[in-house]
Design a protein that fits this description.
The complex is a heterodimer.
Chain A lengths: L15 H7 L5 E5 L5 E2 L14 E5 L3 E10 L13 E8 L4 E7 L4 H4 L5 E8 L4 E7 L3
Chain B lengths: L8 E7 L11 H16 L8 E3 L8 H9 L5 E3 L7 H14 L5 E8 L1 H4 L15 H6 L6 H16 L3 H15 L3 H9 L10 H6 L2 E3 L2 E2 L9 E8 L1 H4 L7 E11 L12 H12 L8 E4 L4 H11 L7 H5 L13 E2 L4 H4 L7 H13 L11 E9 L5 E10 L1
Parallel strand pairs in B: 2-3, 2-4, 9-10, 9-11
Antiparallel strand pairs in B: 1-7, 1-8, 4-7, 5-6, 8-12, 11-12
Classes of the chains: A mainly beta, B alpha/beta.
């Protein structure tokens, strides 16, 4: 049994549209037309005001690492093969914080630090694409 | 010290002594045995129970199931399920209900066969499951439970210079206490811990890294187990055989990741001031701190949020052993041995109340002299993302 990365649903009520956009390699977030609040993850209504509506915007996919950890132990059929791998909170320049992986480094334990600039890189799958991040050179 | 309330008291406690059940009993049966023994400890019986509190850890809508299984007719039913802190929320709600005269005797129980079921807690990391919007955004990442907490530790180190050696002091203090608790020692033996002895900071930082920067000895165990707590109104408490342990303050809060939020601050920063204000006491007066120790960083973060020291100063504050029951300068931390070295079947909040009560009755295996005040602070969910905080302040009679 080959093991693939667990993939999200394209039809989940609030976040399905986010994943549909990834098919075109677009990373989307929401912003409120009423109060301009940036909202992550996708949802029905702005949590800050009652008047506005949430609109999808396209992110440039650039930001920095807010925090991270390198997983050294996993029993999951897919992730156990990636060990050691980095999970991270990425602060995108548009103002939202998302959970993803930092990839493309030789040694995740040594080569990743809080505050590093990163940029989006897509991992391709048949039905959608997964947004990951790689460290950009200084 | 301003006048404290005497509105509700813990009058019965029981912690299931076995940490590996191996199919002999179901979680519900463990809960039941604990309820019976806690009621006996209180000198009460099933017919006295009119407040049923449960986290539905075993099955949804447990308010219906348990009332039937135990033959109860409660006038208050509360199945607040907010993770490991649920029991602190139950204690807070029992305090309110009893104050309002809506019930007189509240029963809180917990039971789990997480070890025997090989659940994803501690270092297990089998995946966090679920099908919510949040899960749909996060499951692809392969975040394990440990790595979620580890991201808090990493940020704390980045913002404040906290070190692994400082975090390790939490593990060594709880292990020091565990070695004095026969049930904790047996738990570690049955769960096949290596080196069942007092540990040093070096032991901790040299133990295997599970998710940077958290090492094995900074992660809670995965046990089976359970417990029960009986809380009663003053007119009932005064006739119970054991010295009542008064609940004098309570606070509840939740926190989740926000776009510019500070990952090093937990929901405890919201719940603790409410609890301390209600109690009319300050952290400096607390003799025992029962703080949810899923991981070392959970305790460090919460010690700061409870107000024992300023945010960011926890690392320096815990160094030097002040958390030990026989040292001055701070509260005794997790004197039963904690989730790190005594008991963690998935949700530990009930054991915080139980050991706090033991201390305030003078029954602990690592007894603090002249124990008068304790704080029991539960953390539910995941510290590095969505979590809850329940802070309970308790006073000896």
């Amino acid at each position: 049994m080959t093991s693939e990365r667990p993939l999200p649903s394209l039809t989940e009520a609030d976040t399905g549209k986010f994943w549909q956009s990834t098919q075109d390699e677009i990373l989307r977030y929401q912003q409120c037309t009423g109060c301009e609040k940036v909202v992550w993850y996708g949802r029905m209504h702005c949590p800050d005001c009652l008047e506005g509506t949430l609109e999808w915007r396209e992110s440039k996919g650039e930001g920095c690492i807010y925090s991270f950890s390198v997983v050294r132990q996993s029993y999951h059929p897919f992730f156990r093969n990636l060990v050691p791998y980095a999970v991270a909170y990425i602060d995108l320049d548009e103002g939202f914080r998302m959970l993803s992986n930092v990839v493309g480094v030789e040694d995740p334990v040594k080569d990743i630090t809080v505050g590093q600039r990163v940029r989006l890189v897509w991992e391709h799958h048949e039905a959608l694409n997964i947004p990951l991040f790689e460290v950009t050179e200084d | 010290m301003s006048a404290q309330s005497r509105d509700a008291a813990i009058v019965g406690i029981y912690e299931y002594p076995d940490r590996v059940v191996d199919g002999d009993f179901s979680a519900l049966q463990i809960k039941t045995m604990c309820a019976v023994r806690a009621l006996a400890d209180a000198g009460l019986s099933w017919s006295d129970v009119d407040g049923l509190f449960d986290a539905s850890e075993g099955a949804p809508m447990s308010g219906l199931l348990l009332a039937e299984y135990w033959g109860l007719e409660p006038t208050v039913i509360d199945t607040t399920g907010v993770g490991g802190s649920s029991y602190e929320f139950h204690a807070a709600h029992a305090l309110s209900a009893i104050r309002q005269g809506r019930c007189k005797v509240a029963l809180l129980t917990y039971g789990s066969t997480a070890h025997s079921n090989a659940m994803a807690i501690g270092v297990g990391g089998r995946g966090l499951g679920g099908s919510t919007a949040a899960d749909n955004m996060e499951a692809f990442v392969g975040q394990t439970l440990v790595s979620n907490y580890a991201m808090v530790a990493r940020r704390h180190m980045h913002q404040y210079g906290t070190t692994s050696e400082q975090l390790a002091e939490i593990s060594t203090a709880t292990r020091y206490h565990a070695m004095r608790n026969p049930d904790a020692v047996r738990a570690m033996e049955e769960l096949e811990f290596i080196d069942i002895r007092e540990t040093t900071v070096d032991d901790v930082v040299n133990s295997r890294m599970i998710a940077d920067p958290l090492h094995l000895l900074e992660c809670c165990m995965i046990s089976d187990g359970g417990g029960a707590v009986v809380i009663a109104a003053p007119e009932v408490a005064r006739d119970c055989p054991k010295s009542p342990v008064w609940i004098i303050g309570a606070g509840e809060a939740t926190k989740y990741v926000t776009n510019e939020g500070d990952l090093t601050v937990s929901a405890g920063a919201q719940s603790a001031p409410v609890a301390f204000a209600e109690a009319g006491v300050t952290p400096a007066e607390i003799d025992i701190a029962m703080i949810y120790d899923s991981f070392s960083i959970t305790v460090l973060t919460i010690l700061e949020d409870l107000g024992f020291c300023a945010k960011g100063e926890g690392g320096a504050w815990v160094a030097g052993g002040r958390l030990r029951f026989d040292m001055d300068g701070g509260p005794a931390l997790n004197t039963d041995g904690g989730g790190l070295s005594s008991n963690h079947p998935g949700m530990r909040g009930i054991f915080l109340l139980i050991e706090a009560a033991r201390q305030l009755r003078g029954e602990s295996t690592a007894q603090v002299q002249d124990a008068g005040l304790a704080v029991a602070h539960g953390n539910g969910g995941m510290l590095g993302s969505r979590h809850t905080a329940g802070t309970i302040i308790l006073a000896a009679d």
